[in-house]
């Protein structure tokens, strides 16, 4: 595989690793138990330039290539806390890229710049109680009244939802179907907005996922992102970065799980020898390593195309599908290898096993990836 990382990428990788190991990993368990992590983490990440890696330098980003984002994702999983990882990636690679790409100067100053600095928390609001996969069926309405939109409806599963300062929000501004959807920047201090509930999840415990309500919320019409009724297209474009970073963190998480398990297997003894010396396990882990390498190459291939500003929808969908499904098997086997130790919260593999379940659901399910791929290959 070609080496996509220069000395500069590696220096950046080192700085991410140092921060993650010092500021995130030691708190992994406590933050999961608390069901939240300190807001300060956003601020720290912003100050270190980790929230605006590939964003416009004019608004506080670093304008770097995508391989820096790859390095960031790979190092972030060392936190062993998928909740904080997801929150930071929602902020940097899901809620803000579309503002960076098509926002007005005003939107970039008001929303993008403080988000990249970690001063404002961002969320992406697409899913609703009645729909997740079927994005063309968004029901939350934004009615044009003079120079404003008046928003009514609700959003569900919104990461960073309980404390977001703004939401990159999908709304219905036109008729039914994908042609009537717009994206807009929504400041959460608007009257009529409320957080209905923080959801009690089975994994990614430290990230706050919420149900949100909008009751006659008035925002200026100039907050629309791009053209009115072209939001579906922008949401689909935005999904590519979300799915690719999802695949990248999943591949890195799998590598980490096997690495941890093999280390454990060298120490733990049974029937007079280290666990790893049992052929059944060595074969299992070797098989996983081979499959992880294949998933990594596919994900890097998608990253290469994405970095070249091509539109590798098929490759990204395949990468998320392959990495997501493989990760379930890898996590199961690694956890099994730990025996009882794999079933307690203190063991990172136990947390990784429950957290990795999300990847085949969030950001587009495995079934939706298959639907996209089948359309693109023509059947
Ligand atoms: C922890 C968490 C965080 C999230 N964060 C966010 C966020 O920040 N912002 C946001 O907007 N959303 C977020 N989501 C929502 C997430 O993207 C959706 O859950 C996901 O897209 C699936 O939608 P759904 O839950 O409504 O499932 P549904 O769409 O109801 O699907 C249910 C099942 O039916 C299957 N299915 C649906 N359509 C088809 C089809 N055509 N063919 C075959 N099978 C099909 C699905 O694959 C799935 O298995 C989050 C979800 C979770 C769990």
Short description:
By secondary structure, the protein is of the alpha+beta class. It folds into three domains: 7-116, Acyl-CoA dehydrogenase/oxidase, N-terminal domain (Butyryl-Coa Dehydrogenase, subunit A, domain 1); 122-229, Butyryl-CoA Dehydrogenase, subunit A, domain 2; 233-377, Butyryl-CoA Dehydrogenase, subunit A, domain 3 (Up-down Bundle), CATH 1.20.140.10. The protein has helices at residues 7-24, 28-34, 40-47, 66-76, 82-94, 97-102, 105-116, 231-267, 279-307, 313-337, 348-355, 366-377, and strands spanning 122-125, 141-145, 148-159, 166-172, 181-187, 193-198, 209-220, 224-225, 269-270, 273-274.
Give the tally of β-strands. 10
Biggest beta sheet summary: 4 strands, mixed
Structural class of the secondary structure composition?
alpha+beta
Helix content: 40-55%
The number of helical segments is 12
**CA radius of gyration:** 21 Å
**Beta-strand content bin:** 15-25%
Shape descriptor reads globular
């Amino acid at each position: 595989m070609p080496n996509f990382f220069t000395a500069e990428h590696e220096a950046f990788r080192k700085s991410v690793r140092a921060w993650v190991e010092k500021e995130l990993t030691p708190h992994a368990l406590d933050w999961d138990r608390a069901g939240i992590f300190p807001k300060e983490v956003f601020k720290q990440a912003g100050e270190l330039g980790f929230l605006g890696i590939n964003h416009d330098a004019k608004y506080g980003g670093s304008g770097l290539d995508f391989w820096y984002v790859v390095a960031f994702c790979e190092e972030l999983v060392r936190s062993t806390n998928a909740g904080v990882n997801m929150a930071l990636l929602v902020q940097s690679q899901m809620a803000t890229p579309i503002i960076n790409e098509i926002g007005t100067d005003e939107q970039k100053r008001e929303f993008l710049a403080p988000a990249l600095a970690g001063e404002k928390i961002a969320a992406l609001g697409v899913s609703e109680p009645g729909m997740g996969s079927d994005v063309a069926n968004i029901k939350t309405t934004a009615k044009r009244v003079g120079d404003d939109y008046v928003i009514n409806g609700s959003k569900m599963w919104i990461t960073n939802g309980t404390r977001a300062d703004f939401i990159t929000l999908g709304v219905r501004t036109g008729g039914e179907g994908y042609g009537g959807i717009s994206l807009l920047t929504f400041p959460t201090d608007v009257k009529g907005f409320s957080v209905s509930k923080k959801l009690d999840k089975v994994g990614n415990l430290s990230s706050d996922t919420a149900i949100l309500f909008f009751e006659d919320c008035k925002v200026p019409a100039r907050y629309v992102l791009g053209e009115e009724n072209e939001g579906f297209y922008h949401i689909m474009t935005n999904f590519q970065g979300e799915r690719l970073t999802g695949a990248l963190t999943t591949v890195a998480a799998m590598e980490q799980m096997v690495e941890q398990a093999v280390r454990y297997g060298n120490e733990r003894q049974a029937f007079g020898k280290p666990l790893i010396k049992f052929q059944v396990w060595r074969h299992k882990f070797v098989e996983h390593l081979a499959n992880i390498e294949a998933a990594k190459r596919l994900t890097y291939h998608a990253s290469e195309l994405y970095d070249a500003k091509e539109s590798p929808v098929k490759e990204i969908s395949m990468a998320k599908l392959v990495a997501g499904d493989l990760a379930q098997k890898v996590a199961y086997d690694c956890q099994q290898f730990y025996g009882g130790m794999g079933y307690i919260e203190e063991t990172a593999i136990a947390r990784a096993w429950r957290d990795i379940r999300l990847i085949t659901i969030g950001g587009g399910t495995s079934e939706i990836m298959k639907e996209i791929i089948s359309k693109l290959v023509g059947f």
